[in-house]
Write a structure and sequence with these properties.
This protein is mainly α. It has one domain. It is elongated, with a radius of gyration of 19 Å.
Length: 134
C-alpha cells in the first residue's frame, strides 16, 4: 500500500513545477513519512487536494487582510478569474474598507489609486501564487 502511495506522489511530482506546488508536495510527503499508518487505505489525492485548498485559502486570506477586503469576495474572484480579468472587478474595488485601510498605513493613498493597486496586485501576485493550484 505504501509503495502505491509513493508511486502516486511520484506521478504528482512530475506535474508539479511551481514553488507552491512543490512546497505542497513536500508537505504531503513529510506528513506521510511522519505517520505512515495513518495513510494506509487513505486516498492520497483527497489529502493532497485538502492541503491544496488550505494553501489557496491562506493566500486569499493574506490578500484580503492586506487590501481590507472580505475573504469570500476575493475567493469568488480567484475561482472565477478568466483570461486575465476579474469577474466583478468594480464590485471588488468598491468593497475595500478604505477607513480600515487608512488606519493600517502611515501614508494612505487616494481611493482610486488604492483600487488600481489592488487590482494589479490581484492579477500579478495573488493569481501568480494560486493559479497553479487551481
Amino acid at each position: 500500500m505504501i509503495a502505491i502511495m509513493e508511486m502516486e506522489i511520484s506521478v504528482m511530482a512530475i506535474f508539479m513545477s511551481t514553488r507552491n506546488s512543490s512546497k505542497l508536495l513536500s508537505e504531503v510527503v513529510a506528513e506521510i513519512e511522519s505517520d505512515k499508518e495513518k495513510f494506509i487505505g487513505q486516498d492520497i489525492e483527497a489529502f493532497f487536494n485538502r492541503m491544496r485548498y488550505e494553501l489557496i485559502d491562506k493566500e486569499i486570506g493574506e490578500f484580503s487582510k492586506k487590501w481590507c477586503l472580505p475573504f469570500e469576495d476575493v475567493k469568488y474572484e480567484v475561482y472565477n478569474f478568466k483570461d486575465g480579468n476579474l469577474a466583478n472587478e468594480n464590485s471588488l474595488k468598491s468593497k475595500i474598507d478604505y477607513d480600515r485601510y487608512k488606519e493600517m498605513v502611515e501614508k494612505p493613498v487616494p481611493k482610486f489609486t488604492l483600487r488600481r493597486e489592488m487590482v494589479e496586485d490581484f492579477k500579478n501576485n495573488l493569481m501568480g501564487e494560486v493559479s497553479s493550484l487551481l
